[in-house]
Amino acid sequence: MQGEEQPKTISQYTYNERGDDDDPPTLSSHALAALKEFVEEQNRTVARDEEEEEVAEKVCLVAEDWRLSQFWYDPLTAETVAQEVIALVCHFDNTDSSSLRRRVACVACPTLYAYIKKVNPDVSVQLLEYDKRFEQYGSNFTFYDYNRPDDLPCEFKHGFQIVVADPPYLSKECLEKVVQTVKFLATREKPYLLLLTGEVQMDRAAELLGLHPCGFRPQHSSKLGNEFRLFTNYDPGTRLGGWKQDK
Predict the structure, then answer these.
(1) Is the model's pLDDT at 19 over the cut of 90?
(2) Angle between helices 172-185 and 202-209 (to 10 degrees)
(3) Which DSSP letter does residue 214 get?
(4) Which of 230, 236, 190 is nearest to 77 (CA)?
(5) CB 197 within 8 Å of CB 166
(6) Which residue would you say has higher pLDDT here, 120 or 54?
(7) How far is CA 107 from each of CA 20, 66, 94, 113, 175, rounded to the nearest angstrom?
(8) Residue of 91, 158, 80 whose CA lies nearest to 123
(9) What is the pTM (predicted TM-score) of this model?
(10) Beta-sheet strand order (sheet of 124-129)
(11) Smaller CB count within 10 Å for the chain: N or C?
């Protein structure tokens, strides 16, 4: 309407009308404290990201050596089992203050070790492995020869609430010796045991450790002719496809 003042656009305001002047803006003490906290949190986030990237690079797997019967899990298998281990660790964090219950032993399964550390670098994991190329993991690596199942540091005896094992061979002898190692490592009270091995070992796994097969089927990056299974001594519920009742 003629004579009525029209609203100004941003470009029509003068410098002072927009609230800017020659005096620098100031913040209240509360706003400064909030800003400082925000910047510190951002710095912590960046530091965590850099640390996780460094850990992820450090735990990358070396090439498979078939002479050592090495066949790495495919990403879905590695992440699924890693998430299961971390779920068990988190359960202990919520129910028990003992650091013993948060320790994980990975027997001859470096793929799983790498994925656990990638998902959660704070989880205490010990890799027991024959291949000394994994000495790059520092104190988290322990040389392990399944032919000498009890030749391990004395502090490892009954020192792990969660033990995951993947015997390098499908022979009866190899499984029996690895089982001896598992029993050496596992806590006496309520250990959580996971075994990844060929389906042909199902009866022996039940006999030696009281394990049951899960519905989830492990796969490897290199396709293997043998059917693999994941066995546990505890009921995973809805995780890992649950216990599979084979007929």
Answers:
(1) no
(2) 30
(3) B
(4) 230
(5) yes
(6) 120
(7) 66, 18, 26, 9, 12
(8) 91
(9) 0.72
(10) 141-143, 124-129, 103-107, 162-165, 192-198, 228-232, 212-213
(11) C
